[in-house]
Specification:
The chain is mainly α. The chain contains 2 helices and no strands. The longest helix is centred in the C-terminal third of the chain and has 33 residues. The chain starts with 7 loop residues before the first helix and ends in a 10-residue tail after the last helix.
Length: 82
């Protein structure tokens, strides 16, 4: 069976990306909760905060997806032929 070499730094980076996307998702959830509790006077500000938090969340998820595919798409597919 052939050994596949994976750079540990790649996994550390992927874990950091995953953590960032989780934190961004949590910030978005909190902004949505605050929006649901807000009065009319602060509603527009919370809508903007939700949009900003959602954009950050989407960017973090995209970075996580990109790092995941960068690592795993390079691995050989299927079982070894040995």
């Amino acid at each position: 069976m052939s050994k596949v070499e994976i750079n540990p730094a790649d996994f550390e980076n992927l874990i950091e990306c995953r953590q960032a996307s989780k934190e961004a998702g949590e910030a978005y959830r909190k902004a949505v909760e605050a929006l649901s509790r807000s009065g009319e006077s602060s509603r527009a500000a919370w809508v903007e905060e939700c949009k900003r938090a959602f954009a950050i969340k989407q960017a973090a998820l995209a970075e996580e997806r990109e790092q995941f595919h960068r690592i795993f798409d390079e691995l050989p597919q299927g079982l070894p032929k040995e």
